[in-house]
């Protein structure tokens, strides 16, 4: 039969692309409930959905920061049935810690971590009764390996990873699958918003040297990484589709193979020195962090290939 998939954060980016990819499945295996916080922003999704709109894809309002909104949405579905949950809504945050307020950090966690917790609390009891289901979560490679000036964002994705890793064992007992999708850089609104915020960010809380590292080393580096290694949301959607249709989906799936060796550094050295030294050298001991990153990624990939 058809599986009902609820996707969050579908007004743009990866969420939009995942919803459309599933709705356009040639075998029509899915009924997609594409949700967004602000239903007024449905234009781009409607356009991308084309003929699948109101056929295999319907749009509903859902704010992951509001339990009532989640409940109302799930209650509106026949038998409250959700076969696949795609928890995608998320926000980014970059910059020196000294320039960020605790309130803004809490807000980010409210979306990126508590948003997931609220969704899972709502659908898990039904999935357990049905003895089936798949919880798919948009995490990030930064859920495995932290990155300079992404302290709070990375922490929120670590939280997501710990949550799912713990839950997956219990879920398995009820025949419920769990998958963390871990993209590297993806060119979406996310990236644009983050840079826009960074440009107008008040860096006065940080000392001059830190502000300079952020502006002159991190920002240009990060922009270059996005423009050269960034994937499209459609590519991430294609891989998410594969994960959802897989017979035996993995707990983790990285969408960008270039990053696999980088995250593996961490597991290779329990003391943490290896990745710490590598990131330090890349950032501060090399005149082009970008070239150093590419060099390290390629070297690691060659090594992985030799094994
Ligand atoms: P995006 O900004 O295009 O999409 C995020 C969506 O979440 C937006 O539509 C936004 O409106 C929605 N959203 C935010 N708060 C919400 C709330 N309270 N309720 C409902 N929806 C809400 O960015 P994206 O890149 O498509 O991000 C999607 C997911 O992918 C995020 O979880 C992000 O952390 C993750 N991710 C992105 C990248 C990247 O480089 N873009 C990399 C790795 C992981």
UniProtKB/TrEMBL annotation:
PROSITE patterns (alphabetical): ADH_SHORT
A GO BP entry: estrogen biosynthetic process
GO CC entries: cytosol
UniProt cross-references to Pfam families, sorted A to Z: adh_short (PF00106)
InterPro entries, per the entry: 17beta_DH (IPR011348), NAD(P)-bd_dom_sf (IPR036291), Sc_DH/Rdtase_CS (IPR020904), SDR_fam (IPR002347)
Gene3D superfamilies registered for this protein in UniProt: NAD(P)-binding Rossmann-like Domain
One Gene Ontology molecular-function label: estradiol 17-beta-dehydrogenase [NAD(P)+] activity
PANTHER family the record matches: RETINOL DEHYDROGENASE 8-LIKE ISOFORM X1 (PTHR43391:SF1), RETINOL DEHYDROGENASE-RELATED (PTHR43391)
Name assigned to this protein: Zmp:0000001048
């Amino acid at each position: 039969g058809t599986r009902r998939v609820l996707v969050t954060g579908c007004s743009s980016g990866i969420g939009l692309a995942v919803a459309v990819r599933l709705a356009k499945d040639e075998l029509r295996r899915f009924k997609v409930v594409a949700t967004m916080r602000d239903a007024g922003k449905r234009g781009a999704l409607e356009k991308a959905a084309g003929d699948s709109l109101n056929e295999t894809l319907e749009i509903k309002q859902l704010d992951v920061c509001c339990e009532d909104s989640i409940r109302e949405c799930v209650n509106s579905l026949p038998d409250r049935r959700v076969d696949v949950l795609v928890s995608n809504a998320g926000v980014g945050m970059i910059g020196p810690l000294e320039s960020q307020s605790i309130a803004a950090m809490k807000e980010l966690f409210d979306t990126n971590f508590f948003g997931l917790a609220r969704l899972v609390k709502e659908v898990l009891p039904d999935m357990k009764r049905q003895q089936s289901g798949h919880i798919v979560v948009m995490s990030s490679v930064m859920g495995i390996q932290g990155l300079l000036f992404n302290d709070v964002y990375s922490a929120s994705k670590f939280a997501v990873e710990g949550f799912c890793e713990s839950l997956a064992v219990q879920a398995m007992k009820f025949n419920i699958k769990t998958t963390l999708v871990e993209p590297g850089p993806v060119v979406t609104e996310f990236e644009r918003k983050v840079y826009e915020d960074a440009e107008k960010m008040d860096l006065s809380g940080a000392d001059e040297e830190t502000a300079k590292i952020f502006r002159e080393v991190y920002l240009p580096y990060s922009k270059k990484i996005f423009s050269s290694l960034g994937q499209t949301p459609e590519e991430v959607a294609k891989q998410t589709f594969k994960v959802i249709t897989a017979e035996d989906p993995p707990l983790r799936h990285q969408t960008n193979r270039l990053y696999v060796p980088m995250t593996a550094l961490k597991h290779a050295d329990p003391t943490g020195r290896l990745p710490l030294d590598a990131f330090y050298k890349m950032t501060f001991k090399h005149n082009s962090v970008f070239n150093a990153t590419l060099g390290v990624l390629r070297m690691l990939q060659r090594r992985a290939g030799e094994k």
